[in-house]
Design a protein that fits this description.
Layout (H helix, E strand, L loop, with lengths): L1 E6 L2 E6 L10 H26 L11 H18 L7 H10 L1 H9 L1
Helix pairs in contact: 2-3, 3-4
């Protein structure tokens, strides 16, 4: 599959190769590939913006995997709490300052 990307006036082209047991051409394969990357990019963007994941310097033993799990939980719980219409970062901050709201976020 060939992917074209335009940033400003600069156009770049990249050839991508995929292995699949699905029959059909590129048109049939593009939907699952794009949906996977949409979810992946959304999650990583959220983790970096709200928790500064890219700046984290934890690297020893199981610490990176443990912190990644805790960050995902900390990102998911405020997203599920729907009474507060503010952003994830603001909801997390409010949960840190207000015990009743924290309980609502944790329990549902």
């Amino acid at each position: 599959m060939r992917g074209d990307r335009t940033i400003g006036e600069k156009v770049t082209s990249e050839m991508r190769h995929f292995i699949s047991s699905l029959e059909g051409g590129a048109a049939k394969l593009i939907r699952p590939i794009r949906s996977h990357w949409c979810i992946e990019n959304s999650l990583h963007w959220g983790l970096d913006v709200s928790m500064g994941e890219d700046a984290c310097r934890i690297w020893q033993d199981h610490a990176p995997a443990n912190m990644a799990t805790l960050r995902r939980v900390a990102l998911t719980l405020p997203k599920q709490e729907r009474t507060n219409k503010r952003g994830i970062k603001a909801r997390s901050k409010k949960a840190g300052l207000d015990g009743n709201y924290l309980l609502k976020v944790l329990v549902g």
